[in-house]
TrEMBL record:
Its EC number is 2.3.1.179. One of its GO terms (biological process) is fatty acid biosynthetic process. One of its GO terms (cellular component) is cytosol. Residues 1-398 form the Ketosynthase family 3 (KS3) domain. Belongs to the thiolase-like superfamily. Beta-ketoacyl-ACP synthases family. The keyword Transferase applies. Gene3D superfamilies: 3.40.47.10. The keyword Transferase applies. Keywords: Acyltransferase, Transferase. InterPro entries: Beta-ketoacyl_synthase (IPR000794), Ketoacyl_synth_AS (IPR018201), Ketoacyl_synth_C (IPR014031), Ketoacyl_synth_N (IPR014030), PKS_Beta-ketoAc_synthase_dom (IPR020841), Thiolase-like (IPR016039). It is an enzyme of class 2 (transferase). This is 3-oxoacyl-[acyl-carrier-protein] synthase 2. One of its GO terms (molecular function) is 3-oxoacyl-[acyl-carrier-protein] synthase activity.
């Protein structure tokens, strides 16, 4: 079933809103990716923070929902608030669902409480677990919007918000609701940053996906919100043609080196979308710039697109790896390439040092000169892969 994604609201290291993010995306602007102290002891890793102004809290939002994670969501949702409220008016509050993805929710807002527990062996009086509850993003956004349909948050590590989009599509297909507010958010968080550092996966320099000199990820933060419906209510809507997933459970934190699980998700998405590999005009790669992810993803892409030279790029050097928000953020970046406002079909550049790893299959990385093929519908694939062998692929297409 084809479902439709209206224009996204989004905030990330590339900026805020469609116009700013689109301009900086196509320019390959990495200015939001900077060394930042205070996150890892003795190091200044490159991180992708959103530095814009965040909205003030509406008075009725309870204190336990007032986290940075939820403010990123609110900033994104405010950008498309008229469309969201119009959906409530058309369908009724009980027919509008909220499905989001996150990996940490508001854990970082409780850091001081954890320090107090370690020092005093007791929680401080102000500690409130609900700040970090995984249910908080969807509960908060439902409360703010006044939607009373199903509301829940998915947490499958770095596929969380891609899974949220697939789940939203399923809810519409089953007739559970008529519109879904979907997407995800993850704020910078000491827990995850130091966790990845403990795995030796965090780079102190700008990440270089698929390079012979890749040295690990840059973590970022983002909030992304879409309105998904069966019919395109908003001008310029883009179709979510299909999605697929797999769960190979190869290892707790390392991917199957053969890429078999990733390839299975990509095949499932193409089949669900009724799209042949030859029709895909651009791939937004997961491309974390870690040794193992890039190697296995190269093999998976080669298996699905042998000798097709499909333009592809990782956008991680522009936004950082936004973890639970990454799937929705990269779907939003694909959305921008499919939007009719992108008249010439320009594709974002793959930002790296242009030093390919000779041990990896060759990929056709997009540059500023790449375009979707003229005269046919544009189709984009967006990959998201996570710990535990949790793999997800989305297929998006233009309205043409």
């Amino acid at each position: 079933m084809k479902t439709w994604l209206g224009p996204p609201g989004l905030v990330c290291a590339l900026g805020s809103g469609i116009a700013e993010v689109r301009a900086r995306l196509h320019a390959g602007d990495t200015s939001g990716m900077r060394p930042r102290a205070g996150w890892i002891a003795g190091r200044t890793p490159v991180l992708g923070a959103y530095e814009g102004v965040l909205p003030e809290w509406p008075g009725h939002i309870p204190a336990h929902h007032r986290t940075r994670n939820n403010r990123l969501l609110l900033a994104a949702a405010r950008q498309i608030e008229p469309a969201l409220r119009n959906a409530l008016a058309r369908h009724g509050a009980h027919r509008v669902a909220v499905v989001l993805g996150t990996s940490t929710s508001g854990v970082d807002d409780n850091v001081d409480a954890f320090r107090s527990l370690a020092a005093d062996n007791a929680w401080p009086a102000a500690y409130d677990y609900r700040r970090q509850a995984l249910s908080s993003p969807s509960a908060f956004l439902s409360d703010w919007l006044g939607a009373t349909g199903p509301a829940y948050t998915l947490s499958t590590a770095c596929t969380s918000s891609a899974r949220a989009l697939i789940t939203a599509r399923h809810l519409l297909a089953m007739g559970v609701c008529d519109a879904v507010v979907c997407g995800g958010a993850d704020s910078l968080c000491r827990l995850t940053i130091n966790g990845f550092a403990a795995l030796g996966a965090v780079a102190d320099t700008l990440c270089r996906p698929f390079s012979a000199h890749r040295a690990g990820i840059n973590i970022g933060e983002a909030g992304v919100v879409f309105l998904m419906e069966r019919d395109p209510a908003a001008p310029g809507s883009v179709a979510l043609l299909g999605g697929g997933g797999s769960s190979d459970a190869w290892h707790m934190s390392a991917p199957d080196p053969s890429g078999a699980g990733a390839a299975k998700a990509m095949r499932a998405a193409l089949q669900d979308a009724c799209v042949e590999p030859e029709a895909v005009g651009w791939i937004n790669l997961h491309g974390t710039a870690t040794e193992h992810n890039d190697a296995m993803e190269s093999l998976a892409v080669q298996a699905i697109f042998p000798d097709l030279d499909v333009p592809c790029a990782s956008t991680k050097a522009l936004t950082g790896h936004t973890l639970g928000a990454a799937g929705a953020l990269e779907a939003a970046l694909a959305w921008l390439t499919l939007d009719p406002a992108n008249r010439d079909g320009a594709l974002p550049p793959h930002v790296w040092d242009a030093q390919p790893d000779p041990a990896l299959p060759r990929l056709s990385f997009s540059t500023a000169g790449h375009r979707y093929p003229p005269g046919c519908a544009r189709v984009a694939m967006s990959n998201s892969f996570a710990f535990g062998g949790n793999n997800t692929t989305l297929i998006l297409g233009s309205a043409a």
